[in-house]
Predict the structure.
Amino acid sequence: PKKLRSKNAGLRSMARGTPSKQPRTAMMKRRPGKPRREWRTTTASSDSLVRSQYAILAHSAGALAAARFITNTRTSSPIEMPAAFVWVDLDPLVPRWQVDYFHQGVASVARIFPTIDDALRGFRRIYPNIPDDRLRSFVIEGLRQVDGGWRMKLDPATYETWEPGDLRPVLPRVACPTLVLRGSESIVTSAEGVAALSDGLPNREVREIRGGSHMLLLEHPEEVSQAIREFIRAHLP
């Protein structure tokens, strides 16, 4: 997890996530995994990382893992629960076509790219609104150098086995204030998914980033940051 700072709220935030709709030629290093397995990883690392009030910012499949972490950690655990949760651009019940997309992309994850620019091309086609320097930094973080070029850090088996399940039943147990962010142009979140989040989360606010795709964090970082700051100011002391 990365540590994020909030100057106004004095929070530390753990960010986890991965795009759930990726081009076949590149993706960031965060693996889709299974929410139940990933919340255990989050739980194991949280006790050593969290020493003060914090928020969780979780993008895509990371939101599923974060929700499992929040709702499955025992109340007797010494781990402090987050003071706020930012759920970014994913339905709580991932449509079957998105799950199948991962399963069908196993070969592309194992591909070796001769150059970094070769790995960048797929992202540029699908996300043309991300500035080149920001996109390059994002993709490079998810690559490792191997004989013959560059390969994704992601284990291809995670694509093959990803089955996120249905998180709608656990949403009422997410007690902390939750900001739901989606991009207005995203094909990953649906109207039904946003409605399920609105109905299920007991203390939530839904914000749409105009012109944003699934990668709204990279496309509109200033607007996203402002939305998060306003949410934290409104809900936390």
Remarks:
- The chain has ten helices and nine strands.
